[in-house]
Amino acid sequence: MGPASAFHAIRRAGRLRPTGEPVWVRWILIAVALLFLGLFLVVPLVAVFAQAFAKGAGFYLHTLADPMTLSAIKLTFIAAGVAVPMNCVFGVAAAWAIAKFDFPGKNILTTLIDLPFAISPVISGMVYVLVFGAQGWFGPWLFAHDIKIIFAVPGIVLATTFVTFPFVARELIPLMQSQGRSEEEAARTLGARGWQTFWRVTLPNIKWGLLYGVILCNARAMGEFGAVSVVSGHIRGVTNTMPLHIQALYDDYNSAGAFAVASVLAFLALVTIALKAWVERKGAALAETREKITA
Amino acid sequence: MLPGFKLTLGYTLLYLSLIVLIPLAATFAKTSALTGAQFWRVVASPAALAAYRLSFGVSLLAALVNAVFGLLVAWVLVRYQFWGKRLMDALVDLPFALPTAVAGITLTAIYSEHGWIGRWFGSTDAAGQFHGIKIAYTWLGVFVALTFIGLPFIVRTVQPVLEDLDVEVEEAAATLGANRFKTFFRVILLMIFPALLTGFALAFARALGEYGSVVFISGGKAQIVPMLIMQELDQFEYAKATALAVVMLVISFLLLLAINLLQWWNTRHRERI
């Protein structure tokens, strides 16, 4: 055993490590971190499900099978079903323009795309009331033509689209920038047409990033509360999404009912987290393979 | 030259204008219906001033608490091995994934007088007198909600920087005679500071705009700015709501600008170390 390997053996034993903490410090830090996470994350998560079944499984199923609940679930899926694909197409288009070309004002455009993240959800809903509401810019015209946007489903879809606007774009822009444009250019030189290049070269490269963006976008779309609350008008069975239905039940002092619906959303949140962790691993593996190929 | 530049940029600008920019412009146009004096009366009213104070104060406090504990969580997740680590790592994203209304009613249930945590802080005696500290339905409840909402921001901005940190620098500090404590505060903290500040700004910005979780736990007792805007909207006082929204929008834009500058600093800082 040479001196170098002896040194490493001691380092592995963790005693003479110059850059580690004593064991008791480690345990205290881990304990405090776990206590903090336990208090703020685990306790609320357990509480949602405990409260949901506070009145038993019968009441739970009764709440979920209620027509009002079912209509709220349906509306939530409609809103996410329109907003997510729209923002997905936008995200791919924006990332293509920003990552593959140079043009003046690129940084400003990237910042503007992030804008909806910086705005309070209440204001995000309010802007559509100012455009399409009774006293808004197009209010009188819409009223004359008997088109309802605010306090109706289109308003909910619009508000959901606004708050989830940046998710896919902000995932894809840095990813496509880091990948550069050499692969697409090679495909073009070899005679591939524009769309062919996109479907065969670009899309396989960005699929995990795209999926990641879609997962986050969808989670926010299904859970949005503030923005849709402003434009919904809270008509039960018509313009209440799941989060708004939770509020309606809660305001009726039907706590177990509110938590029953909340538990469905909490379950979807757990699925989101699991999918996100899985996609992160896949995406990292793909990036590693690409690095090996180019190296 | 790749194809599709005009198509994609054109679509990007059109969609951005229709969904975001034109509706936002409507907000600023709407305030022009108010005279300067009217605008001032709304945005400097006692209710508005109280709401700014609460919003800024509690958001700042929550972001500070998250900066300390978020850094600790990031450190523990990057540097140590322990049972359940991967589960905890994934769970950090819960506040991103859990709808705010769900967080709101759950935190209210936990921190109210009979809740799992609230009961340890105070109770009402037989005469109906409350003893102890009330959390739900006070500013403390708002603080709990905003801490929950901001938790992932610090962890997720600091974590990758800690992972990339070169151990050699720490070894050098140790060789030069610095103890672990000194190394952390003089070397490591300096290197992760831009990331920590970025995460702090993100958590603070998110807390300022938060509505869903706060509206339940405050129970109308402690009013933050988004709740005040909502109240004006419910009474169809659109001009008043818009005036308050413009104040918040200007602050949000400035914060976004600051965050972009911080992120640019953060990237440059990471490239250098």
Low-confidence stretches of chain A: none
Overall 3D form of chain B: globular
Radius of gyration of chain B, CA atoms, in whole angstroms: 23 Å
H/E series of chain A: HHHHHHHHHHHHHH
Element string of chain B (H = helix, E = strand): HHHHHHEEHHHHHH
Rg measurement of chain A, Å: 25 Å
Quantity of strands of chain A, as a count: 0
What percent of residues of chain B are in strands?
A: under 5%
The main sheet of chain B orders its strands as 1-2
Please tally the β strands of chain B and state the result.
2
Poorly predicted segments of chain B: none
**Average of the residue pLDDT scores of chain B:** 91
Share of helix of chain B, binned: over 70%
The share of residues in helices of chain A is over 70%
Strand content of chain A: under 5%
Q: What class would the helix/strand composition of chain B place it in?
A: mainly alpha
Q: Given the C-alpha coordinates, what overall shape of chain A results?
A: globular
In short:
The complex is a heterodimer of chains A (295) and B (273). Chain A is an all-alpha fold and 295 residues long. Chain A contains 14 helices and no strands.
What does this structure look like?
The complex is a heterodimer of chains A (295) and B (273). Chain A has 295 residues and is mainly α. Chain A has 14 helices and no strands. Chain A has helices at 3-13, 23-52, 56-65, 67-100, 106-118, 121-132, 139-144, 153-163, 167-179, 182-189, 194-223, 226-232, 242-251, 255-294. Chain A is globular. In chain A, 44% of the residues are buried. Chain B has 273 residues and is mostly helical. Chain B has helices at residues 5-31, 36-43, 46-79, 85-91, 94-97, 100-111, 139-164, 167-175, 180-209, 212-218, 225-234, 238-272; strands at 122-124, 130-132. In chain B, strands 1-2 form a two-stranded antiparallel ribbon. The radius of gyration of chain B is 23 Å and the shape is globular.
